[in-house]
Amino acid sequence: MGRHRDIGRTFSSGHQNRLKKQKLNNFLKTQRGAMDKFNIVTSSPPIDVNVHKNDKVTNTIAKSNATSSCSPLFLPNASNFNVEPSTSKIDKSQVDKSVMLPLLPVKNTLNCDEIKNSCSDDNKCMYLPEDLRDPSRWPEIMTSNIKQAILEIGPIRITNINFPVKSHNNNRKFSEKYYYRIMPNGEKVDRNWLVYSLSADCVYCFPCKLFNHESNSKSNIVNIGFDDWKHLLETLKSHEVSKCHYQCITKWYELKNRTSLSNKIDKLQLQIFEKQKQHWRAVLKRIISAISFLAKHSDAFRGSSDVIYTKNNGKFLGIIEMLAKFDPIIIDHVNRIKNNETHVHYLGPQIQDEIINMLALKTKEIILTKIQQSKYYAVIMDSTPDISHKEQVSIVIRTVIMDSDEEPSIKEYFLNFIEVKSTTGLNLSSVLIKELSENGLQLSNCRGQAYDNGANMVGQYKGVQARILKNNPRAFFTPCAAHNLNLVLQNSAKVSTRAVTFFGFVERIYNFFTASTQRWNVLKTHCDLYSVKKWSETRWESRLSSIKALRFQFKQIINALDDIIDITDESIAKSEAQSLYNEVESFEFIISLIIWYDILSEVNIVSKQLQDPKMQIGISVSMLKGLITFLEKYREYGFQKAENLAKELAVSIDIEPVFKIKRHRKKKRNFDYECSDAISVDSKEIFRTEFFISVLDSTIVSIRNRFDQLQTYNNNF
Questions:
Q1: pLDDT for res 429
Q2: Which CATH number fits domain 368-479: 3.30.420, 3.10.450, 2.60.40, 3.40.50?
């Protein structure tokens, strides 16, 4: 007998219990997700494009979007409820307000004029070049940034256009009526998730397409797009009540709400990040400006220390320390470094080198862009050993800049320094062609070459200019005219012994006075107009400058040498001063000084014209012809003029104006029948022949030979 409490109780069998449990499970399945129907979720309605005025529902929805009013959102599983959009004309008493979900208006809009312009007369529309607006062109692999951009754009709704008709689809086409769902009570519910693709002529489910990798749906409306217009309505009805669609649309609402600019959880972190970004940008701008300043003026950057606020830390850190006295950005940056709040300061030597390299690359990019825009160019190349005893080639590009805002101008741009192992014409031409090719400059557009007058450069058969001409016959070679004129003077100064010794004495005078401060002070007390100058073979105007100081201060220099002879106690200095005094007071030196000054003065005028950046070939050729004419006339009448001026100068300083008679060395007679050499006893004629005539003849011939090519180019143009 059982317990007393069990009297009158009945117990179900096992089969009955199983049926009861199965019934309960079935009921729970039907109620799963029911609470989600009452959750209020905000989202953005689709964007209507150029809504037709006759469509009341579409018009009211567009109006609602334009006025930023709230429109209702109906979840797919809410089909059993009587729901009414806030903009419809149906009696509001029929609506269960508990299922009305407010929507946030979409800020982005698509201009309908762009769509109309992209449509041709045969109603075949071309897609606008905005891939993220069309689901058919979304990338297969979506990053978080791409999803964020798509969510901000939202679903784009295309309306009020003639949709294309497909012949294989029974001449059917998409219609705007599919944008709305007809409820059992006759209401129209907006399918805000349905988008039409202009490029693919098919429809997609916006959230399912966006989160397809999570739903794993195989439906065409999710993957490749649905274009079977005959069965579209059936597909939409089945899809909008599917589980995968519900999951994706819920994910869409949640992500949209979470990433909304006004509701972001990490808004404060983003503000902090933005503030830090602006701070570092401002710091880098100042650092780049300091580096650019030092690089522009070719100043040294670093010292013996790389730490800020230490001795001898270089000019770069010195500029940063100077800015830290008044610039708030640098003050804050330096304080962070001092307080160990940051270990990233961008003040080290590596970042300096990186920024210099980036500035150089950007500058070179701008230069190459200008050259390529001008198309035609000329190349200038020269090689020289540097201080580390490495042979380096410098390449300069000359081009004509045709700027619409300014007058056409000739510009020269430095391209690169290149170390070379060999300076032969073959190697240098290969280096030049390779450099032009690497910088995107076609050799066929080269119209000129300019090098120095070395044999490896100007050689007629194996020089650089000859090898370039073989590849491009239009790359005419033009030697440097100013350098050519300097070579003329160099050759003329070495044509005779008297010419060589003259410039030797000029150099000795400069070295004598500059070797001692005492001698220089003595010279300055006598010469207040010009100071003696050193002449150089590479500095073209130095010859004239060195002679000019002697030509117009000859008496003062004689007096300075005389004073040094009297006051100095150094035997070497006294001997050197006496030697220079004896040579300078000779009549031959005086007349040589006047002749050289007359020649160099005229040559310098032409040299300045040839060095002018705006030099015109026609004017230069005319000036060279004028120089040759002057030299020819000076050869005929210049000696007598120079002699008269020399006599006046010699008499003013008590020097006898006569040419010294030089003893001539007699040659040994090997045979009795040989007669003695005829010896000219006229010292004046000997000086005129050996010095004056030789210098002028050499100068005239050299100018004609070296500038014959320039004359040819002038005749061609």
A1: 93
A2: 3.30.420
